[in-house]
Amino acid sequence: MKADLLVGNIGQLATLRGPAGPRRGPDLADAGLVAGAALAAAAGRVVAAGPADAVRRQVDLAAGARVIDAGGALVTPGYVDPHTHALFGRYRADEYALRVAGTPYVEIAASGGGIHASVSDFRERSDGEIAALSLPRLRRMIRNGSTTIELKSGYGLNLEQELRALRLIRDLDGSLPATLVPTFLGAHEIPAERREDREAYVDELCDVWLPAVAKQGIARFCDVFCEPTVFTLDESERILRSARGLGLGLKIHADEIAPGYGGAALAARLEATSAEHLIVIAEGDLDALAASGTVAVLLPATSLGLASTTFAPARKMVAAGVAVALATDFNPGSACCESMGLVLSLACSALRLDPAEALVAATHNAAWACGEGEQAGSLVPGKRADLLVHDAADLRELPYHMGFASVDRVLIAGREICFTESELRDRPRPV
Ligand code: NIG
Ligand code: FE
């Protein structure tokens, strides 16, 4: 087999090899570790990965092939971040300070802050401004190891602005090396000007916006913020069924705030691709979720950003057979977190996932949670050569180092990604 890239001298390689589909139960801890390994790729795809001598025997290096010496380090698949709202204007650090002092998220939202604040800010800014503000954030996510990133609209909240958000995401996808997965989140909130006719808002979303989004082919998923104070179970179901009818995949923000509201059970019933948050899921809904193909995307950085000590019941989920994945939820409100590395630390210390389980949840299962399971999340022949060379020798070091990326080198589709310091900084400063 011809290869144009060889990564050799890998001390520990997490291949994540194994059957297709999200992992559950005891399989969640199977990172497919190989000691003394190598990996070969051709045209951006993995062609061989495993014990170094076996890989060498299998491949023929093309003239001019790139050879990387991993120096005995740990190599893993790139992180997949299947839930972010990284397209926005200004930050909302003022709200974080209020939450730390005890004001609840819903109270801040009810007084005009929260999603509403980001909606008016988004609508006022030009395309160029939004792109310039979002780029360094996305680059930081990549620098921290995220090679596939799901990105939601949801700060436009009218047809024109939501289509603009999805177009901006498409343009960012073209100018960044990572794979961006676009999600339509017109059902993120009811905007202030539509509060009096919410029924008409939901009608329009189903009958006009979704067909327009589907026709333009600029979103792969439709998401809904399902909470009694935002979109009810009935409204969420209606929106998601319309989306499915138009060929979109389904995601849902579920059981984040109102205890046991039932969004996760709805996701399971609809066989949605993912149900996300699940901080306060009813214990009685775990079996339905486990019996479905829906992946539970856990967002422990959101609890941190909400200044809360309540986390999703991850151990109970794993015990019940729910497929769990991890994401940052990067957004200007509840979770200003660009780092999957920090999410791994929280997943272990707060959710009590084992380090290997956390890695599988942040790569293989995360890829299945955003429709990229066939392309990313593991280092097996045929998948994209998205990989991280860590400044670490053992996968247990990943969550152990807290708040600091152990990621030394990032390769996407076999190409090494480097950003300058200034490309990673927020410039212009959002005000
Ligand atoms: O996932 N829950 C809804 N959406 C985001 C928050 C967005 C915001 O506050 O701007 C979340 O936490
Ligand atoms: Fe979210």
- Total of domains: 2
Query: CATH class of the largest domain, anyone?
Result: Alpha Beta
Mean pLDDT: 97
Structural class comes to: alpha/beta
- Computed over alpha carbons, the radius of gyration is 21 Å
What's this, in brief?
With 431 residues, the chain is of the alpha/beta class. The chain has 16 helices and 16 strands. The strands form two sheets. Strands 1, 2, 3, 4, 5, 14, 15 and 16 form an eight-stranded mixed β-sheet that branches. It has an eight-stranded parallel β-sheet with strand order 6-7-8-9-10-11-12-13.
Name some characteristics of this structure.
eight-stranded mixed β-sheet, 431 residues, globular, binds N-(iminomethyl)-L-glutamic acid, alpha/beta, Urease, subunit C, domain 1, binds fe (iii) ion, TIM Barrel, eight-stranded parallel β-sheet
What does this structure look like?
The protein is an alpha/beta fold and 431 residues long. It has 2 domains: 2-77 and 378-417, Urease, subunit C, domain 1 (Roll), CATH 2.30.40.10; 79-369, Alpha-Beta Barrel (TIM Barrel). It has helices at residues 52-58, 93-100, 105-110, 115-124, 127-143, 159-175, 198-216, 233-245, 263-270, 286-291, 300-305, 314-320, 340-349, 355-362, 364-368, 397-400; strands at residues 2-14, 33-42, 45-51, 60-69, 74-77, 79-81, 146-152, 179-187, 221-224, 249-254, 274-277, 295-298, 324-326, 387-390, 407-412, 415-417. Helix 7 links the parallel strand 8 and strand 9 (221-224). The longest helix is centred in the middle third of the chain and has 19 residues, at 198-216. The chain is globular. The mean pLDDT is 97. Fe (iii) ion binds next to loops. N-(iminomethyl)-L-glutamic acid binds next to helix 4.
